[in-house]
Design goal:
heterodimer, A: 623 residues, 9-stranded mixed beta sheet, 8-stranded mixed beta sheet, B: 664 residues, 9 helices, 37% strand
Chain lengths: 623, 664
């Protein structure tokens, strides 16, 4: 049994009528499994239950008016209690900060635990009003909030939300975590060939063929925009943005330029709004500005000639990409039957022109039994594993139109090599090894491809990638085996990202070892076991890897159990730095933070197959 | 093993929405463009796919506010649509509210003006936001100038949604549903994606804006019931727990050891679900108090309190025809007593319990929890043991694929069916046995009657579509979800398997024809579907336990056509009023059917209706009309006394002029 109370973390006052969900995982003496999102989402749970003839219902408990709650009939184990209340960030018992790691309640058999406090942090909010250049409210305009994320490698801007203005031009981001934010009104101009509605419908409904639908699915939408403004044989519109004005009498189109609060053209000049939990920031108003624009035209060709019906993107590179702003389209277009494209409404600036023909996405297995989805989205014969075809170029738009650009699609380079096993035990089968190539994009964006399994001779080649910066991760479905090193192009990429240009990489060597070690122990603070500790471990030379960008496996982070115990397994033999800090200190982790952590770290050596015990003292982080 | 199970509720919902959109599209008669302005996928009225023509006609005009000031409106998107859709294009008004279209081929055009926050206006429509517009006739070298389109500012409804304890609730969808008895208003918003809805923010505040004048019922729709339920902590529980915690364990026992003795905990309260609630605070649509809105303005303080209803678990077993428990059957729970508030997607979501379906377990059992009170039917479909999964066949088009994933259909070889009605009232129901039976086989043949090259039979699918339970488009669309199909072989023979007893209508799916309603310009049209000479295409018929006779589906390349000119009292051609053609046989007034059709005369007064089945009809002009009302028997009955009666023979091309009587 657990008796507790939901309170506001900033005031300590009870929060009435919070909605609580409880789950128990068997106690295993370690905190490793209790990471964020340890409980499968409801949909997945429902899916898992389907084959058993059961469609379950999650029963939430509504706390009383004084914030109090009781759970009875609980099994012994680590009990996670999650709470939701309007106006508050979702919270989990034991959290030490707004987005901190959960600390389950370790409940003994038959134990009756009282006084459990579940703290929730109030959302911060930003609201304001958007007006157009005439001072009229901008209705149904998209407004975006970026959260500043000081990652280990520098500052990036994460999309924290999109709001839409109402009939008064008002918008509100009501559910923001505490942090630093930038508010922007993005603007993307869409230019499409003026294909008639009639022709499209005829393709869709009449011809009895699915090809046009598949083509649309590939290209990401119908190749037309019936509400777009007609300009010659094109239509132009601003989806999700304030409507474009009619062209001027000289035919020139004026467009809104992307704007950052208060009135900046790039994120570098934007005002940063620092919000503590519960802060309500009003009056974040923006006045949109019209600018003159130009036309950009060209043609996309591939190995077989002009490429039709392909989305073409013009990404702004001078509004903040270098400062860590996620890339977004200033203009989007699509090639016509002759491979030609036109962007209307491009303001002066620096851009990257990009076009990618992605390979057909693999349909998740559970969806493959659906004949409709299979017919529409399943791989076509002979197309199963073709590479993405890609082309990009930089360009500058000044005071005139830019015409005659040529984009030549090329097969994305593949990454290939072999896997080697080093050890005395039986290595895993080739199909148990998964090689994952993930793009490293600031602020996220491009998706991770499907993992590749090596062939029986342990060689592998990926289907191909769009040029860019990538990381390689390798996993084996065998408990003892882990990565010792990964080399590619003469460099050690075990912990570092690498750049992929248009040339394939063929010399990857993945060395796996059965000598994975582990380290475990307990963390103590000044007052005894540190149940709120987080243990960080990284290769001792991690700073040199970090200089090239953050590999997702470089720094591992595990919460200690409520009794202060921790365990980290799967460690490649080598030198490490290990440190325990209070979970509340794992805040926005900038480089200075890291230096401070490193100063308190302990150097340990993990030998092949070694299980080390190391007790740690909580390190105070200097911020 | 999971058959056609939907892996997640979201995927199911997306699929249902897709089906709804497709089905709704198919239900829309190819009427004039007034209807089109309200619907994202218009119907082509010609299959000529040649390049867009140009001409020398033009239209210019202004958009102004619909009030005494007639203030020009800038940034209004003005859409121009022509009968054949090739001329569909859009432009934007300038700072003086002016717009223009040039190089138009001669023809009839409709104009629709839209601007966020304003009520979409169809030129010539009698009511803001809906109704049929007046087509504008354009001729070469004769510019149409000086058109004025008036737009009303939309009205807003705003308020707070709270729990019974007063806590605001975020992320609740609040809808403004046009109240009954307002011709047109219902269809105007229900088909427009997202209009009339808003979601509560972190403070529980919602704001719905851009609403046309009218009376609205405001509904708060909680997250779908079923997968989630709520239980309130009681004061007794807290008291008991407080005591139990303070009753210390015996001295010397380890920390956290069980207390020596305590009374057993009080039974927790029953789990409840949130029910849809209507302003001012009722779960009953009929008891809702509508909000009256005129042009523009804001109605604040429309606050709602979420209501809870008890939930129950419904469990049982699926039994095969041989009496053995059946694993892997698709089990759906459908609500039968859904209030038809005219909301297409919402009605269907509720009918299917917002995606409540599962596959029976290895021992044939099923268990659905979180079922809210109401009348339901457990619907089961299964493949006979050993049946192979069906692959989509060649020549499949979009519609046949959509049909193939309907939850109640026979696709994939699911020919076994079972149905069990259940009344749920907050108490768990156990041990419900759903007995599966082998479905009936309805056989028939497709014959062609005409001189044009016949269509390849492989592209023809004959469909049994469930008869609509009501007269609304929503009910027709819902019934369509249980459609069964069979594909014709090279000789035109077809069989439809897995048919359960019930009321149906026969339709055809083939290029150029959907469910029997022809796409204009198609060569082949459904002329009739009969069993023993009795029409089964346009009037519902019953399939009993013993099945039915052979279905004969006849296709023709000579459809009927009814055309004419509408004249006003002074004898001038008039485009002021739409006309409606409807069968004299009430049984044929089926929503989405072929026997009730509307047409809007062009500005020269001419109209034309193609593809009516042979038979007797009434023709009448009406003041204004919207799709949702088209099949309303009460409305049609009212029109009968003043209507002209005529007969259409097979393939007949009839001309019937209309003269408007006095009155308006």
């Amino acid at each position: 049994m657990i008796l507790g109370r939901v309170v506001d973390a900033t005031t300590g006052q009870p929060i009435p009528e919070a909605v609580l969900t409880v789950s128990t995982s068997p106690a295993a003496g370690r905190g490793a499994g209790a990471g964020r999102g340890a409980t499968p989402p409801a949909d997945v749970a429902a899916l898992l239950a389907r084959g058993r003839g059961v469609l379950p219902t999650t029963v939430h408990v509504i706390a009383g008016g004084d914030g109090q709650f009781v759970f009875t009939g609980l099994d012994a184990g680590n009990v996670t209690i999650r709470a939701q209340a309007p106006g508050y960030l979702d919270g989990t018992v034991g959290q030490g900060r707004p987005t901190g790691l959960p600390r389950p309640v370790a409940l003994a058999e038959g134990e009756r635990r009282g006084g459990v406090i579940l703290r929730l942090w109030p959302y911060a909010s930003i609201e304001g009003r958007i007006v157009d250049e005439a001072g009229e409210p901008a209705v149904e305009a998209n407004v975006r909030a970026y959260r500043i994320d000081a990652s280990l490698t520098g500052i990036t801007f994460e999309r924290a939300g999109t709001a839409r203005t109402d009939d008064r031009g008002m918008y509100r981001f009501g559910e923001l975590a505490p942090g630093r934010y930038v508010v922007s009104v993005p603007y993307t101009v869409l230019t499409l060939p003026a294909t008639t509605t009639q022709q499209l419908l005829s393709d869709l409904m009449g011809s009895g063929s699915l090809d046009s639908i598949r083509e649309m699915a590939d290209a990401g939408g119908p190749p037309m925009d019936p509400s777009g403004m007609r300009v010659g044989d094109l239509t132009v519109s601003a989806p999700g943005g304030v409507r474009l004005p009619a062209p001027r009498d000289d035919g020139r189109l004026l467009v809104y330029r992307p704007l950052f609060f208060p009135a900046a053209a790039s994120i570098a000049d934007a005002s940063i709004l620092t919000l503590a939990a519960g802060d309500q920031r009003a009056g974040v108003d923006l006045a949109l500005q019209l600018v003159e624009s130009h036309r950009v035209t060209g043609v996309v060709t591939g190995a077989d000639g002009p490429v039709r019906n392909l989305a073409v993107h013009l990404e702004s590179t001078d509004t903040g990409e270098a400062d860590g702003l996620p890339t977004s389209d200033a203009a989007t277009s699509r090639t016509g039957a002759d491979g030609r494209f036109t962007f209307l409404g491009v303001p002066p600036g620096a851009y990257r022109l990009r076009a990618t023909r992605e390979p057909p996405r693999a349909l998740p297995e559970e969806l493959q039994t659906n004949p409709m989805l299979k017919a529409l989205f399943g791989a076509r014969p002979g197309e199963a594993a073709r590479p993405p075809r890609h082309a990009e170029m930089s360009l500058q738009v000044g005071n005139g139109d830019v015409d005659g650009l040529r984009l030549m699609l090329e097969d994305g380079p593949t990454i290939g090599g072999r896997v080697e096993f080093r050890g005395s035990t039986t290595p895993p089968a080739a199909k148990q090894v998964s090689i994952l190539v993930a793009p490293l994009v600031p602020g996220g964006g491009r998706s991770v491809g499907a993992p590749v399994n090596p062939a029986d001779d342990l060689s592998f080649t990926t289907p191909g990638h769009v040029p860019g910066r990538y990381t390689l991760s390798v996993f084996a479905a065998a408990p003892r085996w882990t990565v010792e090193s990964i080399h590619a192009g003469g460099a050690d990429v075990t912990w570092s990202p690498f750049d992929l240009d248009t040339t394939p990489i063929t010399d990857v060597v993945v060395t796996m070892t059965d000598g994975a070690g582990r380290v475990s122990g307990s963390v103590r603070g000044a007052d005894g076991p540190a149940g709120t500790a987080t243990v960080l471990i990284a290769p001792a030379d991690f700073a040199s890897h970090l200089a090239k960008g953050l590999h997702p496996n470089l720094i591992r982070q595990r919460p200690a159990s409520p009794t202060g115990a921790y365990e980290i397994a799967g460690l490649t033999p080598g030198e490490y730095l290990i440190v325990a800090i209070d979970d509340a200190d794992v805040d926005t982790a900038g480089p200075e933070f890291l230096r401070s952590v490193v100063a308190g770290a302990t150097r340990i050596r993990i030998g092949p197959g070694e299980a080390r015990t190391m007790d740690l003292s909580l390190t105070t982080v200097r911020r | 093993m999971t058959g056609r199970a939907f892996p997640t509720r979201r995927a199911f919902r997306a699929a249902v929405a897709g089906v709804v959109a497709a089905v709704a599209a198919s239900l829309l008669p190819p009427g004039p463009a007034g209807a089109r302005a309200q619907f994202p996928i218009p119907f082509p009225t010609s299959r000529d796919t040649g390049p867009a023509r140009t001409g020398t006609g033009s239209i210019t005009g202004r958009v102004v506010t619909d009030d005494a000031s007639a203030r020009p409106l800038r940034r209004v998107v003005v859409m121009l649509a022509s009968g054949d859709l090739r001329g569909t294009q859009a432009t934007t008004t300038d700072d003086e509210g002016r717009f223009g279209f040039a190089a138009l081929p001669s023809g009839n055009y409709t104009i629709t003006a839209s601007r966020p926050g304003f009520v979409t206006a169809v030129y010539g429509s009698k009511q803001p936001g809906f109704g049929l517009g007046v087509p504008i006739a354009v001729f070469d070298d004769r510019p149409v100038t000086g058109l004025t389109v008036r737009m009303l500012p939309g009205a807003a409804i705003t308020g707070v949604v709270r729990m019974t304890g007063g806590t605001p609730v975020s992320n609740v969808v609040v809808r403004a549903i046009p109240a009954a008895g307002q011709p047109g208003l219902r269809s105007s918003s229900l088909l427009t994606s997202g209009a009339g809805t808003a979601t509560t923010d972190d403070r529980g505040v919602y704001r719905i804006f851009g609403l046309p004048p009218g009376r609205y019922v405001v509904q708060a729709q909680p997250r779908p019931a079923g997968s989630e339920a709520w239980r309130r902590v009681s004061d007794e529980e807290i008291r008991w727990a407080t005591q139990a915690v303070s009753a210390r364990a015996p001295l010397g026992a380890p920390v956290g050891a069980p207390a020596a003795a305590a009374s057993p905990p009080p039974a927790p309260g029953a789990a409840v679900a949130m029910a849809p609630v209507y302003f001012p605070g009722t779960p009953d649509l009929a008891a809702a108090r509508p909000i009256e809105l005129d042009g523009g303005g804001e109605r604040a303080g429309v606050d709602l309190m979420m209501m809870t209803v008890p939930i129950a678990r419904v469990s049982g077993v699926v039994v095969g025809p041989d009496g053995a428990p059946m694993a892997g059957a698709q089990v759906q729970i459908k609500r039968l007593d859904v209030a038809d508030d005219g909301d297409l997607i919402g009605t269907m979501m509720q009918m299917f319990g917002a995606g409540r379906g599962l596959t029976s377990g290895a021992d044939g059992t099923f268990s659905l929890s979180g079922v809210t009170p109401g009348r339901y039917e457990i619907d089961v479909r299964a493949k006979p043991a050993g049946a192979k999964p069906a692959e989509p066949e060649g020549g499949a088009n979009l519609m046949s694929l959509v049909m193939s994933m309907l939850p109640g259909g026979n696709a994939g070889g699911a020919t076994l069916w079972g149905r069990e009605p259940v009344d749920v009232a907050g108490v768990d129901l156990e041990g419900i046995a759903v007995r599966l039976r082998e479905g009936l086989v309805v056989t028939g043949r497709v014959v062609v009657d005409g001189t044009a090259p016949p269509p390849p039979f492989a592209q023809v699918q004959v469909m049994l579509r469930g008869a609509a339970s009501g007269s609304s488009l929503a009910s027709a669309a819902a019934s369509m979800l249980t459609s069964l199909t069979g594909r014709a072989d090279a000789d035109g023979a077809f069989s439809i398997r897995g048919v359960s007893p019930g009321r149906y209508q026969v339709g055809v799916l083939m290029p150029g024809s959907m469910f029997g309603t022809s796409m204009p310009g198609a060569t082949w049209h459904l002329r009739s579907a009969t069993i023993d000479g009795v029409d089964v295409a346009d009037r519902p018929f019953a399939v009993g336990r013993d099945g039915v006779g052979e279905v004969v589906v006849t296709l023709t390349d000579r459809p009927t056509a009814l055309s004419g000119t509408v004249y006003d009292q002074a004898g001038r051609p008039s485009s002021a009023f739409p006309i409606i053609v409807f069968s004299t046989d009430r049984e044929r007034w089926t929503p989405g059917g072929r026997c009730v059709q509307q047409a809007r005369p062009a500005s020269d007064g001419t109209f034309r209706v193609v593809g009516l089945p042979p038979g007797d009809y009434y023709v009448s002009a009406v003041t204004d009309l919207a799709l949702e009302d088209l099949y309303d028997p009460a409305l049609l009955d009212l029109l009968v006394p003043g209507a002209i009666r005529l007969s259409l023979a097979d393939g007949e091309q009839k001309v019937q002029d209309l003269k408007l009587a006095g009155g308006s």
